[in-house]
Design a protein that fits this description.
One of its GO terms (molecular function) is hydrolase activity. By secondary structure, this protein is α/β, with parallel strands linked by helices. It is 35% helix and 14% strand. Helix 1 links the parallel strand 3 and strand 4. The C terminus is likely disordered.
Length: 360
């Protein structure tokens, strides 16, 4: 049985709390969560990869869980978040790691790889391709499917909610605080994947989600969260408030400047092993131009492994077995991070192995 331990260390901005498991001599995988979640949402992955011989860690990012809760918007920028991940890496005593991200966590690990590829044995992003979310609203609007979202009616497409957060941060923060439990169930339910205009496309017109009325109270069974994770996510918001949740969306201009190719290593080109899992029933994929959504990633990542699952946004919890199997296949076949040399059976961090994909 895998024991997941809880730790906190003193980082530059304040305490960073993280979960860890597995042999400390194994190759390191760092998991980075998204909005509005916490490190615990990676539990199925922490358990799986610890069992496979990896040393795994997942931190609560700024404003979540037991980590530093800031009222400074800039503390939620990609530059600040990358610095936090580098401090975690140093605290764990490593020079480099595999970084796996989801949602905003994907934006963080892509930004980290763009600026510090020497710290990455590889990067794996769930649901968010390279050079999209980390570049802010202007970039995301360029990926909108204009057949579904005519520009005259939906100038910002499904990303209109991000503009609303930028323009009305205090109102959005209050709404989240008032309805967080319902919103959490709504955000983690199984999206039907149909190609239709999203509720996120009208917030600036209607004055917020559902015209600022209470969201529907969906049955808990519709969510992909179990009660333990759901309660922990809700407790995080109750303890920290919703400022941080909205603040991640308020750094678009700063994030775009930070990730300008002129400021990135190698002009933002990535030669390290990269993994992208497309969630085919997630509104981000369903509502985006299939070409524009991944265009820069395919152009700039020379070693990219792309896969697709029929799932919605919370893929790692909705389909944990499939997600873990695909990550394991990539780690074994495309990186130098597999912990066991299959020819000898010896635990040897850094050695690649030959693993039949049918065995995963």
């Amino acid at each position: 049985m895998v024991i997941i331990s809880s730790h906190t260390f003193a980082a530059s901005k304040g305490p960073i709390h993280y979960l860890a498991a597995g042999p400390t001599t194994g190759p390191l995988i760092v998991f980075v969560h998204g909005c509005p979640f916490i490190a615990m949402t990676w539990r199925p992955q922490l358990e799986c990869f610890a069992n496979l011989g990896f040393y795994v860690a997942a931190a609560d990012t700024t404003g979540y869980g037991q980590s530093f809760n800031s009222r400074q918007v800039s503390d939620y920028s990609m530059e600040s978040q990358v610095a936090d991940q580098l401090e975690l890496l140093s605290h764990l005593g490593r020079e480099k790691a595999i970084f796996v991200g989801h949602d905003w966590g994907s934006a963080i690990i892509w930004s980290l790889a763009a600026h510090h590829p020497e710290k990455c044995l590889g990067v794996a992003a769930l649901g968010i391709p390279y050079r999209t979310v980390e570049l802010g609203l202007e970039k995301l609007v360029s990926t909108v499917d204009r057949e579904l979202y005519p520009e005259t009616k939906y100038p910002y497409g499904q990303w209109d909610y991000m503009l609303y957060y930028e323009q009305n941060p205090e109102k959005a923060e209050v709404y989240f605080a008032q309805h967080f439990e319902r919103l959490t169930k709504l955000f983690t339910t199984r999206y039907d994947g149909l190609r239709k205009a999203s509720i996120t496309a009208d917030l600036t017109k209607t004055g917020g989600f559902f015209g600022s009325q209470a969201p529907p109270d969906l049955p808990f069974e519709a969510s992909v969260l179990d009660h333990e994770i759901f309660n922990a996510v809700v407790a995080s918001e109750r303890n920290n408030g919703s400022f941080g949740i909205i603040a991640y969306y308020r750094n678009g201009v700063a994030n775009r400047a930070y990730n300008d190719p002129k400021r990135c290593a190698n002009g933002a080109k990535l030669d390290i092993p990269c993994f992208y899992l497309d969630c085919s029933a997630d509104l981000a994929s369903v509502n985006s131009s299939s070409t524009n959504w991944t265009a820069e990633m395919r152009e700039l990542c020379s070693n990219i492994f792309e896969v697709q699952l029929n799932c919605r946004h919370m893929v790692a919890l909705e389909k944990p077995t499939e997600t873990n199997a695909l990550l394991a296949r990539w780690l074994c076949e495309h990186t130098q991070a597999w912990p066991v040399d299959r020819s000898s059976g010896i635990l040897k961090p850094g050695n690649p192995c030959t693993l039949d994909r049918n065995e995963i």
